[in-house]
Amino acid sequence: FLCFCLFPRFDGSCSHLVTCRPVLVETMGFEDGLYPSWEFLECGGDVPERRSGHTCALHQNRFLYIFGGFDGSNCFDDLYILDLESRLWRKIEAGGECPSGRASHSAVTDELVGVMYIFGGSGSHFGYTNKRDLWEFSFEVESWRLLSNPIEDTPSARYGQSMVAYQEGLYVWGGT
């Protein structure tokens, strides 16, 4: 699920959002071994609104989960799933308390546990409403759970960071 902007702003916003159409790239091969080639997928269902700064996480090598993002004015707190086999989008009405709207956060899946983690990000006023909360989304029951409030032993509030799951831990790099 990609939306390209050749001239993004530093804060992650894009003045070209109104002309940008979300697409999923099925393959990136090399024609003649020299240049990448792209193939666009036509997808149906409840397609997410245009956005930047969202996260995209893959589950079971079949389902793409899109959370959050920014439309130039507001941050989203919604969650969508794309079934790569049926090519249908669905908005998830998750149970439990949900993360607040955010962009430039990080997301990672843990396939052994069957969850996705969301950390940090920024609200609609980039750099002034940074977050440091950690959320867990259960794929099986489609429910959110807050794992940590801002406490002393969590990383500082930030956006634009990277995060990976390794063994039994989450590792966060960088951010502002």
UniProtKB/TrEMBL annotation:
Q: What is this protein called?
A: Uncharacterized protein
Q: Look up the domain of life of the source.
A: Eukaryota
Species of provenance = Noctiluca scintillans (Sea sparkle)
Tell me the organism's taxonomic lineage. Eukaryota, Sar, Alveolata, Dinophyceae, Noctilucales
- Which residue spans adopt a coiled-coil conformation according to this UniProt entry? none
InterPro entries listed in its UniProt record? Kelch-typ_b-propeller
Ordered alphabetically, the record's keywords are: Kelch repeat, Repeat
